[in-house]
Amino acid sequence: MRLGTEQSANVQRSPWEGRSHGHGRTRRPVTTTSASPSNLVGAPPADPSSLKTSKKKNAAAKALACRNRNRQFVLALPQPPASICKLTSPQNSVSSSRQSPHLRRAPSPLQLSLSISLRNHAEALRSRGFHSNDTLLGNGVVGVLAETCNMWERRAPLTPSHCARLLLGAGRSGTRVKRIIVQPSTKRIYHDAQYEDAGCEISEDLSECGLIIGIKQPKMILPGRAYAFFSHTHKAQKENMPLLDKILEERVSLFDYELIVGDDGKRLLAFGKFAGRAGLIDFLHGLGKRYLSLGYSTPFLSLGQSHMYPSLAAAKSAVIAVGEEIATFGLPSGICPIVFVFTGVGNVSQGAQEIFKLLPHTFVDAEKLPEIYGAKNLSKQSQSTKRIFQLYGCIVTSRDMVSHKDCGKYFDKADYYAHPEHYEPVFHERIAPYASVIVNCMYWERRFPRLLSIDQLKQLMRTGCPLVGICDITCDVGGSIEFVNKSTSIERPFFRYDPSTDSYYDDVEGDGVTCLAVDILPTEFSKEASQHFGDKFSKFVASLASSKQLVDLPPYLRRACISHAGRLTSLYEYIPRMRKTMIDLEPTKANPLPEKKYSNLVSLSGHLFDKFLINEALDIIEAAGGSFRLVRCEVGQSIDDMSYSELEVGADDTATLDKITDSLTSLANAQGGDHNAGKEIDLAVWVGKVNECETGDTLDKGGQKVLILGAGRVCRPAAEFLVSYSNNYGVNDNNTDQIHVIVASLYQKDADEIVDGIKNATARQIDVADIGSLSNLVSQVEVVVSLLPACFHAAIAGVCIELKKHMVTASYVDDSMSKLDQVAKGAGVTILCEMGLDPGIDHMMSMKMIDEAHARKGKIKAFTSFCGGLPSPAAANNPVAYKFSWNPAGAIRAGKNSAVYKFHGETIHVDGSNLYDSAKRLRIPELPAFALEHLPNRNSLIYGDLYGISKEASTVYRATLRYEGFSEIMATLSKIGFFDAANHPLLQDTNRPTYRGFLDELINANNVSTTNVRTEASGEYDDKLIARLLNLGHCKEKEVAVNTVKTIKFLGLHEEAQIPKDCSSAFDVICQRMEQRMAYGYNEQDMVLLHHEVEVEYPDGRPTEKHQATLLEFGKVENGRSTTAMALTVGVPAAIGALLLLQNKVQKKGVIRPLEREIYNPALELLESSGIKLTERVEI
């Protein structure tokens, strides 16, 4: 692309990534012996004024605190629950002589296993040096983080009342919390002043804290501290490994809340039923809107979302009010009976049912659902105006979702978990036809049948199913409910799926099903959730804060420590093993495990991580001489949820493979016990053949498939062109079936936004660095279009060549791609590159003109090509007449590139430092309103060789277009020094300069006096600055200096505001200002202009001809969605390239450009058909 013209895909980042800027006072904790425990435990005091004392009383309290600093207080910190104490207390390790023999029980196998593992863990810690030399700080100072990972995260690990209790010193001897420092936060559910009144200090600086606690991942890790938060690192998930690496690098002791478990293996710290409560309230809020869009007013319409209420009690009161209105006035018969179907029986489902039960309701068994609808059908004609005064609820389990394939056998839970392939789904036949709302709270893994597939939903909609919505509290993307392909946010909690068109919409109005899939629900009840969590966590804080040696911690906390002193603790040594399989092995379908001859796919489900069964499973595999690769890992997100992993297990012979399988099955049987007795299964194993099992996302839709990698602005026009090709362009090509497009991006949200509303398009999340996942996806399509940055193309092309799939890119062919040419030819694969605008359309227009001239026996005398991405005239409303839709750094750097071209037989070299000065004025006769200029674009000579005209053409010139005056201003800014990327001394100081001060400094470097310039009036300052630019020789004409000063003022480079800390060079400063003030506005359009001129002379005496071809395209706004001209003219050609490959119209193999007639002729025709117009004319 020429001089920074935008063509690559842009990845949108989350708008919620922010920083905490809160500030608060700092106060030493106040300790008093006269505090009432009732005012310190459970909730803040009813009268806040009771905490406020006079200065005199404060002084007395502080003095008393000094005297009593080491005194034992009567108020005791609650001890850990009995389930833990029983396991850890020495006196309980053997029977007490005072205990009744009737009360004594033999320890369970799980208790014995936990006890043994704890002892082994402690011994391992000591043997590995986790004691005297590598200790926790244990200084008793606790830091509470300000949550920064999400706008809505308002929870806190400790409430002010918990902090007050801890600061009073309640706890066993030696486990005092001396200070609590709370980072200021203006969005936390508890205010800084409340923490300060409880005795905490408010400060951004947590460097004095030995223990730092939070809810989610902190933005910064301080070395040598202990941290406690939900890290999700123990599951070896790739996205969390950079955090773990940082933890290890900083020698941090990491405690994960999920791993604090009792002797029954159950987590002790979680947010309980809050997800279920918040999720159902949010859905009821949306249900009112959905019914209104269908023409029915209901009491649900008055209900707000959970976060709109100050407390859970207030939210419940609002639900009760809705229930009272239903009980009094009823619901329209046209939408009744309204049946809520709840899946799952865990805490999430219980929380949702708790809210549902506040409404007038009747719970019915699944087999009674047809009777309810039978009664409705009988009364439909005679009682159409009758109101219904209650809702119906139905709780379903796996027994209601599947049926044994053998009609003579009944459902058996143990058999179902062990052999799900013996069962077939029946939920869509028995339950879904009667459901108005499905509240999904169930755990699911891929070896089981889905609760509801897309095809099943389509059939239900065709038969008139009353289903209006899915409340997917599990937020299981691509899980048990297949069409749920994305998570939603609290601010936009719903999307609508229309199965008849396979389309997604961000509203609740129209055909289809409304779905809620928010993944951060508990934070909507931040106050209650924090209180619930802190009630349990506060029991452990004193130990974590004061223990100086890891081995001195209670066993249940030792088990929760993932890393310490720069190393993983023994229970978590499996993490590098699992990471290694994802990093070192890059298998393909043709060779899944190259080092092993035989392989099976083994599915492990259960409490793999919280009970550390994954350790035992991996030990079994490696001890037998096998190998493994982690294919998939889905982790439980609550106490009740189990985790699921798919391992590709390999061995050198079938006997070893069978031995591994048998050992894993035995481990599962030992953990599972008597399933029929109702015992929860800790581990289940399922074994299948690798080539017969689903190891990733499969695309079972019919027709030809195109994979688009990247979800930037260019992507949507490409996807729209492909899926609508046969319909919109009147083409009925027998070689082209219905095309299905898969848009894959590193960020699922970006891919979802691209396919939103596009029929026959699917979003996928993928990391192209994961070659295994990439191969799996590529293997399921016919053509791959890479709209990613060029650095990714070679690796993707390698996968395409291996799987014999064609590929298209819009990027230049670089050395890494050129090296693949012969390999691609040998595989019979076409890698079509440079299929965008520039390069792309420019190639095709040029070669069409050149080949036509050669066909008429003409010779090319001169070839010139001009191309530019510009603001439309209406949007060119700043002194530079240019705007950016991306970071301006690339465009500015492109202005420093050297160039070479041939003009009238002479080779002209332009140094990068003089590029802007080489710009020339340009007028296109057919476009007289455009005042343009052109700058030479890099090496034009190579195009003479590519186009086959280097020997005949005396002029070969390619240039970048800008509006006239652009280059003079940019050249002046460069001469001032704004394009210097070196660190500037003035910007290294913590005392930040102002923009005006920095501007003066840059010009002062040329020894020009700026005396009193800051005190001058605006006009005087402008005049002085213009004179300075002229005196320095930066501008040759006053008009240029005037325009430059206008630009400086437009960018705010003369303002007294301080320069941000992230700017360390003059280049950073100018880029930051240009990005802020030269961006496109909401309704502003861009423009693409491409113009070729070819002079043709004829040896037979015919007059010389001047052939011209022009493309002028503007950005568009359709149906409220804007599409840039650049995205259109890059995305559509790339899609056309994919289409030609699908139609087998490109015979040439290897790494190629669109220079052949078989490509450019049909491609240019398709461009015209798509609305991208090319005009041609000939002058003699």
TrEMBL record:
Span of domain Alanine dehydrogenase/pyridine nucleotide transhydrogenase N-terminal: 143-278
Bias (Low complexity): 89-100
UniProt GO molecular function: saccharopine dehydrogenase activity
GO biological process, one term: lysine biosynthetic process via aminoadipic acid
InterPro entries xref list: AASS (IPR051168), AlaDH/PNT_N (IPR007886), AlaDH/PNT_NAD(H)-bd (IPR007698), LOR/SDH_bifunc_enz_cons_dom (IPR007545), LOR/SDH_bifunc_enz_cons_dom_sf (IPR043009), NAD(P)-bd_dom_sf (IPR036291), Sacchrp_dh-like_C (IPR032095), Sacchrp_dh_NADP-bd (IPR005097)
Keyword presence, NADP: yes
CDD domains membership: LKR_SDH_like, SDH_N_domain
Bias type Polar residues, positions: 1-13, 29-39
One Gene Ontology CC term in the entry: cytoplasm
Alanine dehydrogenase/pyridine nucleotide transhydrogenase NAD(H)-binding domain: residues covered: 318-517
Record region (Disordered): 1-56, 87-108
SMART domains membership: AlaDh_PNT_C (SM01002), AlaDh_PNT_N (SM01003)
One Pfam short name: Sacchrp_dh_NADP
Swiss-Prot/TrEMBL keywords: Multifunctional enzyme, NAD, NADP, Oxidoreductase
Pathway: Amino-acid degradation; L-lysine degradation via saccharopine pathway; glutaryl-CoA from L-lysine: step 1/6; Amino-acid degradation; L-lysine degradation via saccharopine pathway; glutaryl-CoA from L-lysine: step 2/6
Family: In the C-terminal section; belongs to the saccharopine dehydrogenase family.
Protein name (database record): Saccharopine dehydrogenase (NAD(+), L-glutamate-forming)
Upper classification of the organism: Eukaryota, Viridiplantae, Streptophyta, Embryophyta, Tracheophyta
